[in-house]
Amino acid sequence: MERTLSIIKPDGVRQGVIGEVIRRFESAGIRIAAMKMLQLTQAEAEGFYAVHRERPFFESLTRFMSSGPIVVMVLEGDGVIARNREIMGATNPKDAAPGTIRKDFASSVEQNVVHGSDAPETARTEIAYFFSEMEICA
Length: 138
Ligand code: CMP
Fold this sequence. Notes:
phosphoprotein; binds adenosine-3',5'-cyclic-monophosphate; Nucleoside diphosphate kinase; metal ion binding; metal-binding
């Protein structure tokens, strides 16, 4: 059974779409195996997005990601990494397909409501950034 990390970003929490995002996952038959709400420090956001350290948007992204509470979840299901990415839509809401979370709720390529791991190895690292194995309900 595959796992992925999902984050509802500060703009999603501020818009009040936590329930709607979770509803979309559960309606698609995806199981939530762990969940918590927390606020990252900018240093913690920098650690999470370390692969983007050289990108021009890194400072702004990590400031945004530490600007308010987020909801982090472990999603579980067959092919859940790809299925989550389909439900989220393209990174830039301008390119996102109709009916996706980012098309419906994102305001910009940075403030795009949700994050999802892009590959199995990334998913393992990202899940371990937020959850111990004991916190994940198998
Ligand atoms: P996410 O899926 O969390 O992965 C990296 C994040 O960086 C991405 O979503 C966006 O929030 C942000 N991002 C990606 N590209 C850009 C960009 N061109 N300008 C600003 N932010 C970006």
